[in-house]
Amino acid sequence: MRAMLRVICLLVINLMFSQIALAEMPVLKAAVLKVGTVNWELDTIIHNGFDKANGFKLEVTGMAGNAATRIAFQAGEADIAVADWIWVARQRAAGKDFVFIPYSKSVGSLMVKKSSPYKTLADLKGKKIGIAGGPVDKSWLILRAYAKMQYGFDLKADTEQVFGSPPLIFKAGLKGETEGTINFWHFAAKLGAKGMRPLISVADAAQALGLDPNVPLLGYVVKGELARSNPELIAGLVAASRAAKELLASDDRAWDRLRGKMRAEKDADFAALKAGFIQGIPSTKPIDVEAAAKVFEVMAKLGGEKLVGVAKTLPEGVFVQLQN
């Protein structure tokens, strides 16, 4: 009886200490787009305990739009948001101390009907192109620069553009309301699964321009003060993110669990989304800042102040520096 009581007491004590440790564990709050692909990684982190294994507790709040996530982040209601590093560079140039942690190098493609006669961008002269986002969408800007260099024509002046939300542009492309469709990578993947084909990928266009397609465009954004005051916490976030990516790259069961979140009822959509995510996993090597500066130069030239604000060149300190 006494032995049984000792066991019970030990279990209670262990439970108490584990609860105390959990209560003392720092919390990282992430504000992300409710339907964003980043949720696949964040859900994997929490489900597998990769956050707690790396010394923090992750809490995720899904929001209706990217603007809302950035407002929450800037107001201090969240510690993490997701954005491209061009946005982070713009904010730093304006005096805001934000830093970027690489998350994904996935980019979209210009998609056309599989049966269409188009072979190059030059074939789209006089045609209608649907573009997810606005006139300073990064994929659109890179394709404009590529068309100018490769074929000597202005894609903006010589085509008709229709700008809209990713779902609307997706539907317009499927219905044939546009001859070409530029969309985010996961919508492009679904278009491919539904019988469309890439005329050119943004990564290939970037490479042709002499830009490094391996510079991850999307990432987690945190405040520089947090990164400096608690580098172990940021290192833990990076480690948890990497652990989730490694699991998703190697275990189909991890994807089966996420399928409901992916809105992929058809197997072809599911396979395309899974492949696209894995393909977008960035290297663990530090970002090539010189390569990023070249990308920024092109973005600033084409997008101007509407895209990069007051920045003329890539500001220092955009990319997080982890202590070895």
End-to-end CA span: 52 Å
Helix content bin: 40-55%
Q: Identify the overall geometry.
A: globular
User: What is the rounded Rg?
Assistant: 22 Å
Continuous helix count: 14
Biggest sheet, in brief?
5 strands, mixed
Low-pLDDT ranges: none
CATH hierarchy class name of the largest domain = Alpha Beta
Strand order of the largest sheet: 7-6-8-5-9
Give the second-level CATH assignment, the architecture of the largest domain: 3-Layer(aba) Sandwich
> H/E series, N to C?
HEHHEHEHEEEHEHEHEHEHHHHH
CATH homologous superfamily annotation of the largest domain: Periplasmic binding protein-like II
Average the pLDDT over all residues and give the rounded result. Answer: 92
**CATH topology value of the largest domain:** D-Maltodextrin-Binding Protein, domain 2
Total number of beta strands? 10
How many separate domains make up the residues? 2
Give the amount of beta strand, in percent: 15-25%
The helix-and-strand class reads alpha/beta
Question: What's a quick, concise take on this entry?
Answer:
By secondary structure, this protein is of the alpha/beta class. The chain is 51% helix and 17% strand. It folds into two domains: 26-105 and 215-308, D-Maltodextrin-Binding Protein, domain 2, CATH 3.40.190; 109-208, Periplasmic binding protein-like II (D-Maltodextrin-Binding Protein, domain 2, 3-Layer(aba) Sandwich), CATH 3.40.190.
